[in-house]
């Protein structure tokens, strides 16, 4: 009995590690825009940090932010690997206790990074006096550009840094490979998915933040 349990645990560990490396790398790429959004959109709102931001450097940082942002929703397309993993494993125990939790956390973290990144940008624009409808328009444009970026990454195998290293090839792909029926359908579908999931996750995130503020606001001051 103990040997069977040990073998099952070892198999679960091996299955987990099979996906760990590429998941860790993709999450690293997904967290880059979140980190940049904090630097670009949150820190400048504090007076103590405003003097260190050069407009040119900020602009370069924003371009880098936009280049890496599609890496966050890109994790949604990695669910195709879950289907492959399920086909390769006939153990329901492995599927439900290893694969599903692993992919769930992976997708949740990656897409939450996208949601928080766009929320930080939206709050930054509002702090600059942008009207709500203009901010919503920017969010929709972000979703559209991210949908294009996801397509370029998943189907044409471009990475964010190819903007510099393979710029001519990237431009050619933008001109010749994005206007066929199949790319437009895929990117339109991705845009719709991103828009809906972003709105849902945004409401959940803002609700959690509001609840957290309410709890802290009503928290009694402990006596010293």
Structural overview:
- The protein is mostly helical.
- It contains 9 helices and no strands.
- The model has no long low-confidence stretch (mean pLDDT 88).
Q: Determine the strand fraction and express it as a percent band.
A: under 5%
Order of helices and strands: HHHHHHHHH
Q: Please, how many helices?
A: 9
Q: What structural class do you assign from the helix and strand content? A: mainly alpha
Question: What's the structural blueprint in terms of helices and strands?
Answer:
Layout: H1 2-42, H2 47-50, H3 55-68, H4 79-88, H5 92-127, H6 132-154, H7 162-165, H8 167-176, H9 181-217
Concise structural overview:
Helices cover 80% and strands 0% of the residues. By secondary structure, the protein is an all-alpha fold. The N and C termini lie far apart (55 Å).
Key phrases:
224 residues, mainly alpha, globular, single chain
């Amino acid at each position: 009995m103990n040997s069977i349990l040990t073998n099952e645990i070892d198999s679960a560990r091996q299955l987990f590690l099979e996906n760990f490396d590429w998941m860790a790398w993709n999450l690293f790429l997904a967290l880059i825009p979140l980190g940049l959004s904090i630097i670009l959109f949150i820190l400048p709102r504090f007076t103590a940090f405003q003097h260190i931001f050069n407009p040119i450097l900020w602009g370069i940082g924003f371009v880098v932010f936009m280049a890496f942002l599609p890496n966050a929703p890109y994790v949604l397309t990695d669910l195709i690997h879950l289907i492959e993993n399920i086909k390769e494993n006939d153990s329901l125990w492995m599927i439900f206790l290893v694969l599903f939790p692993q992919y769930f956390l992976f997708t949740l973290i990656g897409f939450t990074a996208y949601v928080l990144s766009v929320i930080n940008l939206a709050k930054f624009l509002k702090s600059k006096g942008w009207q709500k409808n203009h901010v919503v328009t920017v969010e929709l444009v972000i979703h559209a550009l991210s949908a294009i970026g996801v397509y370029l990454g998943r189907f044409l195998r471009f990475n964010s840094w190819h903007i510099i290293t393979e710029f001519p090839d990237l431009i050619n792909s933008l001109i010749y490979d994005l206007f066929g029926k199949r790319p437009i359908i895929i990117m339109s579908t991705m845009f719709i998915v991103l828009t809906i999931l972003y709105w849902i996750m945004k409401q959940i995130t803002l609700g959690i933040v509001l609840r957290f503020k309410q709890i802290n606001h009503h928290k009694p001051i402990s006596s010293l």
